[in-house]
Amino acid sequence: MSTHHVKVNVNGAVKEADVEARLLLVHLIREDLNLTGTHIGCDTTSCGACTVLLNGRAVKSCTVFAVQADGGEVMTVEGLTSNGKLHPIQEGFHEMHGLQCGFCTPGMMLSAVALLKQNPKPTEEEIRWGISGNLCRCTGYVNIVKAVQYAAEKMSG
Amino acid sequence: MIPAAFDYAVPKTLNEAVALLGQNPEAKVLAGGHSLIPAMKFRLASPALLVDLNRLNGLAYIREDGGWLKIGAMTREADLDGSDLIRKKYPLLADTAKTIADPLVRNMATVGGNLAHADPANDHPATMLAYGAQVVATGPKGERVIPIGEFFAGTFETSLAHDEILTEIRLPAHKAGAGGAYVKVERKVGDFATAAVAAQVTLDASGKCASAGLGLTNVGPTAIRAAQAEAALKGQPLDDANIKKAAQLAAAAAEPADDLRGPAEYKRGLIKTLTVRALRKAVERAKA
Lengths: 157, 288
Ligand SMILES: Cc1cc2nc3c(=O)[nH]c(=O)nc-3n(C[C@H](O)[C@H](O)[C@H](O)COP(=O)(O)OP(=O)(O)OC[C@H]3O[C@@H](n4cnc5c(N)ncnc54)[C@H](O)[C@@H]3O)c2cc1C
Ligand code: FES
Ligand code: FES
What we know:
The structure holds 2 protein chains of 2 kinds. Chain A is α+β, with helices and mostly antiparallel strands. Chain A has helices spanning 25-32, 88-95, 105-118, 124-130, 142-156; strands spanning 3-10, 13-20, 51-54, 57-60, 73-75. In chain A, a hairpin with a 2-residue loop joins strand 1 (3-10) and strand 2 (13-20). In chain B, strand 4 and strand 5 form a beta hairpin. In chain B, helix 9 (227-233) runs antiparallel to helix 10 (240-253) and helix 10 crosses helix 11 (264-287). One FE2/S2 (inorganic) cluster binds next to loops of chain A.
């Protein structure tokens, strides 16, 4: 069993920790760094509640080891606001009623942010495709799609 | 769920990675981790050492070279999916990458891992059979080339030695008159196939079938090459009657089992229908 000293840039600040090789990235984020906005839903790589950006790409943090992020950059939902101002995607979820219980929301927002970076003006179908790794059990996807459209407009306008 | 404890190594070179595997009979390679880590969390796999390939340079590329399309084993599905070259000239491969899992998984999952895992439910094996691909294995004595038909030894088993790493996948480069398609039935987006068919055809100058490749997903212990169906098409016009005859033969080659995705006979029926659809689309694209 090996332990490793890792340095990860999380939401713009470098964090260090000694981790067992088997520690999952989601546990580093939630338990070592106390950033509990990243959720664990299924724990079996199916639901996307644990989605974070790892080096700019949206990934399921329940299926990546923390050591794999060593030297890299992670963005969690806590990193979306800047200077107390909501990110357009957060605004979109708020304005368009994109959530009910909110469990899936952090993951949805990070998938949406990754999508909009790649494709700033997605069609509805592209949005649905882009969030297809994130499951929502209560809102339904209609308002979530609207939230992403809101953010797309705001960010390109 | 927490995997059993293991050691973790980041080799700096491919040789070092091969040596680490050679020294540790219980070691496993970590590629995208999206089959291996779930299996470790369920404790279906408990490797003593993970050899992480993610920091090795030069294993992720897509390029045409010397009559082949060469794909580095660590190429992510998302990069295949986003490649203009693949979209324009290798539609069967483009179809396949698009249908694998969901965008989050595709950001991590690798093409090499998809083949090396040898899960009959994975989508690339049938596609590579249809293309007549080769894989390159790198071991202590250097590289060897394995025809894809000799690669899958059984469910989750390949002909790779323990200390060999799959480093490259080679597909015959696109030529005029070639076209392909992958048609998959899944219960919902991101699911493994209930059944799927990969078809690749090349038309000769008269429009007849110069060669055909057919691979079947998730209807047997490994992906299946429908060789009799391929042979029946060769030299023939790709009309409806011949396509239907090939579909019969492909369905006969399937060895499906009853499971949560449906009874065996339903899956056999699916293979027949999907073979017709895949061949029609392949022909359409070959003519375009
Ligand atoms: C929710 C979900 C849905 C999925 N849906 C699909 C789907 O629809 N279709 C599909 O095809 N797949 C699907 N997958 C599987 C996914 O594509 C896997 O990522 C893939 O099967 C394995 O690739 P990997 O790079 O993640 O390999 P890993 O998980 O890292 O490795 C898998 C196995 O192969 C070995 N290995 C990996 N790379 C090499 C190499 N270069 N040389 C030698 N050995 C190697 C490893 O040691 C391990 O034993 C899904 C996965 C998930 C989590
Ligand atoms: S908790 Fe990671 S995908 Fe569900
Ligand atoms: S808002 Fe409840 S799961 Fe999506």
